[in-house]
Amino acid sequence: xxxxxxxxxxxCKRRGFxxxxxxxxxxxxxxxxxxxxxxxxxxxxxxxxxxxxxxNYDNIVGLDAAILMNxxxxxxxxxxxxxxxxxxxxxxxxxxxxxxEIKENKCPECDGQLLKPRKFNLMMKTFVGPxxxxxxxxxxxxxxxQGIYMNFENVLNSMRLKIPFGIAQIGKxxxxxxxxxxxxxxxxxxxxxxxxxxxxxxxANKWFDFWKKERINWYLNLGIPxxxxxxxxxxxxxxxxxxxxxxxxEYRFPFGWGEIEGIHNRGDWDLSNHSKYCGKDLKYxxxxxxxxxxxxxxETSIGVERSxxxxxxxxxxxxxxxxxxxxxxxxxxxxxxxxxxxxxxIKVAVLPLVKNKPKIVKMAKEIYKTLxxxxxxxxxxxxxxxxxxxRIDEIGVLxxxxxxxxxxxxxxxxxxxxxxxxxxxxxxxxLVKVLKEKLE
Length: 440
Fold this sequence. Notes:
The chain contains 12 helices and 23 strands. By secondary structure, the chain is of the alpha+beta class. The longest helix is centred in the N-terminal third of the chain and has 21 residues, at 36-56.
């Protein structure tokens, strides 16, 4: 199964999904750049999540908080004291590992002797201003939620909200991971999609169960099979220090089960702690009941890269001998990315049957220009039509439009479905309408 990961990594680079960062200088550990197709797929994931949160639920609003914040934020949140991993170092090869990953008291790389574990803070430190001293120390945020808590009162008052309500945010976060691994599953720079739901303490359990169900359904609706998804309740000893209850939504990766989203009942830990540190009363006052209290927070936190990785693994399919139905199967393996239609980076490919017939090429380019304002499109005229079909299948293109000799006679084209490979004749004037219906 690990071989599947290496194949996906290779495909991602070859076809423009994900590249190693700074590759011409030898790369930079655990950093990746998202290519033309990867950035489109990331954009789709974020747009679908944002629409889900902001448009499909009442009382959820958006926010885009700054990455750099007052260092006191991280002191109050506990990140400067308790946000650390136990690190062990090999005396021989000098490589470092998380204590929890060591099963025997020897180095997993060279069998060398391991030194005593020590705490390793995951916060990334930087300096603001011209002088690098303790007074100018700042941190790259380790999570996006703290920016939401900083703006709890601002959003509450400016938007005239009443509890329960949510604040959603998409943004970068940074953690100085000791042992980043498994491609884009664990990196030092990543993007989060988080929603913080503020509610009455007595309603917290009800809302926790509600959001757990809703978030699992989100993955199911985007094509993740139920058998490859599970919700794991984390016991008290292992859950985050702020969590009264924690459920990890995990996906079955080729390397094993891995968390792609966390659902947390954070209680009133965040707002009460920030209230204590900043000296400002962050309690909510209910005008109707005249009750004043710190809201409980139900958090849904999803990693964009991890979810994208899960969607890619889920979509990856190999067909031995190829999928051709018109010629004899050959001894080769054909790769198809059956990405959900909402997530697919390219929706439509326009292909002239041949490139040496000017009228066919001209009409194909006109169709491409007509469709481009409506859909993410691709134009390809290089190679045989069979090879082009295989190329677009490999990057998950949903529909292929082929302009052929019949097109010149009756103004129709063939529309090929990626998953079924079935073709139908469609009038050029109806293409936008037909494609919108199929994509919706």
